[in-house]
Fold Germin-like protein.
Amino acid sequence: MAYPLVLSLKYLLLPWTDSTACAVQMNTLRDLKMFYKYSNSSNPIYSIKQHLVQTKSMEMASRIIFLALVALASTSPAMASDPNQLGDSMRIQQDAQMVTVDDFFFSGLDKPGNTSNAVGSKVTPVSVAQIPGLNTLGISLVRIDYAPFGLNPPHTHPRATEVLVVLKGALLVGFVTSNPENKHHTKVLNKGDVFVFPQGLIHYQYNNWTTNSVAIAGLSSQNPGVITVGNAIFGSTPPISDDVLAKAFHVSKETVDAIRAKF
């Protein structure tokens, strides 16, 4: 609660051994009690101010209003997410006359993705780019297909937590926590198993078996973004200096160049 929080701060800042400080503390206690007396009104700060104006205590009014603001601020946690919607969807808000049912529809997740690539996996996204009606709704999903020994390489989603469910086959999955622990959490998932990858953490899925695997993942953003670690480090444009990468990975520049050539 904000009440004991503010009082505890006063006790730390104003020692009881000083008589003047003690008097100030008693005033603070009285002020806070008055704040809580009026806290159930529709506008507690205004009610307190009116009460004190009537008793010609403007100086005390200013102090109580300040304390009230501190108390209210201490009970209001910061939140971060996609923009809040102001209507049924942002698409409708922008131009209701142009909205069609297709703005809320996508077809094709029943079709396997083409895994004929270097990593042996294919991600099919369904985000705001595919369904405009997702705008401001804070959710999207993907289908991921894995060939035998296919990998969804280590990557992060800067704007979303991911919840993945295996629909077919099995997957070795994992994520790594932030510095300094860098703890690797890994598990084998079978059909029907669910795993969560926290927002922003590096994670991967690997089909370490001889049959195809399929997964569906929900993400807590209309546009979660993806940063594939290898591509970002070795395939950036313009490239990161060989000196930087050689020192960062404790390898020679020749090794850096050999890895970069694959991206």
Summary: The first strand starts at residue 121 and ends at 126.
